[in-house]
Amino acid sequence: MASRMISAADLDAAELAALLAFHAEAGVDWLLEEEPVDRIAEFEAMRAAHAARRSAGSAAAGQPEASAAPGAADRSRPAPSRSAREAAAPSPAVAIPDGQAVADAAFVASTARSLAELRTAMEAFGGCNLKHSARGLVFAEGNPNPDVMVIGPMPNADDDREGLPFSGRQGIMLERMLGGIGLDRTEILLSNIIPWRPPGNRMPSGPESDICRPFIERQIELAEPGHLLILGNFAARFFFGSTQTIHQLRGQWRDVVVAGRKIPAFATLHPQDLAAAPISKRLAWQDLLAFRAGLGSQP
Where is the stretch described as Disordered (predicted)? Predict the structure, then answer.
């Protein structure tokens, strides 16, 4: 017997709610985008930008660019649609992470004299390709001169949508975790190593991390926190310079050196880790108790 696809119109309110909850637990962040996305136009824009850079490089080297026979391109592929041409025209060239971009990021970060200035500088910075796929910058939020600064790896879909770190369900979970040891979100500073959400929540590449390092280190330098709480595998490896997992790095005090200043740092599991493996909540709770106890004893 042939099966029939079930439409949303066939479900009642309770069934729809259950279906949405299932997708949320499975990690689906978006069902539909707010605006239609023409992926073909994006590809055409990237290819045009690549061709322009290649042409510029050939001209600078004094080499004529190879050209096809007249009309060959027209015969080999159809002309782009109007929507593709309109989308391609204003699209900026994709910024590929490289050594110059890292140097530019370091210079931009060093010129900021406050967190507000740093935010403005990062919003204008165009040297990281992640900026072009994210909705916007997700900057540090909270107490600008905290005793505790909490740092995660990168924004998720909720953060990207709200423009704030640790938004949505993970933010609520983090607030409960911190509240359990007497810390309030308004008293601390929250931030991420990567300020722009990577496409599909993928892990940042090495060059992307190198570009973003001056920005997070400058945030720490300007905020002058007394202690750092590092969340998750990526963030722990980033700050501790280790290839070990968060389960090996968690629960211990270490020093992180930023601008010549040693800051006591403590790593534990990220709220996303706890959502994926609720059994790990007991480990996180042990870590938080140890972190709370160490706040008074660390120099």
Answer: 54-92
